[in-house]
Amino acid sequence: MTPELRLEIQDLYDAYAEALDDGELERWPALFTEKCRYEALPRENFERGLPLAVILCESRGMLEDRVAALRKTSMYAPRSVRHLISHIRATTEDDGFRVRANYLVLQTRVDALTEILSAGRYVDLVVRDSGQLRFREKRVIFDSVLVPNSLVYPL
């Protein structure tokens, strides 16, 4: 894998974090292919091969619907989030790149101190689509079996 390709993969993860952290959720679905899979599941389910996910979207359209629901219908306390993504490791596969990375998401509500919202790892399939890298699969595997009731934003 060339240094340029590694940097391009890093740029995709940076764009992912930036869109979510800046509250520009409408930019988030464009980072995925039309036919994609986004799921957030506890580590225990992942390791046991159990399919139950807390969040599951199986197309870019479903990601766009999630953004619309967050903007128009969901009720939740205002907050800011900050994604810290590290240890990005990519290997080449036939149809793209299998990428693993650690993540930590912090949240700050207007009436509270900053706290950890979620920690875990990403296990992703990144492919070239229309000349740029996009996520075909993003599996967010969070370490805790407990899910905060404030889990409304994508991780």
Task: Produce the secondary structure layout.
Layout: H1 3-21, E1 32-42, H2 43-48, E2 55-57, H3 60-72, E3 79-93, E4 96-109, E5 115-129, E6 132-142
Parallel strand pairs: 1-6
Antiparallel strand pairs: 1-2, 3-4, 4-5, 5-6
Strand content: 35-45%
Global Rg: 15 Å
**Intertermini distance:** 27 Å
> What's the number of extended β-strand segments?
6
What is the structural class?
A: alpha+beta
Main-sheet strand order equals: 2-1-6-5-4-3
> What is the name of the CATH architecture?
Roll
CATH class descriptor: Alpha Beta
Outline type: globular
H/E topology pattern: HEHEHEEEE
Task: Count helical runs.
Answer: 3
The CATH topology label is Nuclear Transport Factor 2, Chain: A
Quick take:
The protein has 155 residues and is α+β, with helices and mostly antiparallel strands.
Task: Give a quick set of tags describing it.
single chain; 155 residues; alpha+beta; Nuclear Transport Factor 2, Chain: A; 25% helix; globular
Structure explained in plain terms:
It is a single chain. The chain has 155 residues and is α+β, with helices and mostly antiparallel strands. It has one domain (3-142): Nuclear Transport Factor 2, Chain: A (Roll). It is built from 3 helices and 6 strands; from the N terminus they run αβαβαββββ. Strands 2-1-6-5-4-3 form a 6-stranded mixed β-sheet. β3 (79-93) and β4 form a beta hairpin. The longest helix has 19 residues, at 3-21. The two termini are 27 Å apart.
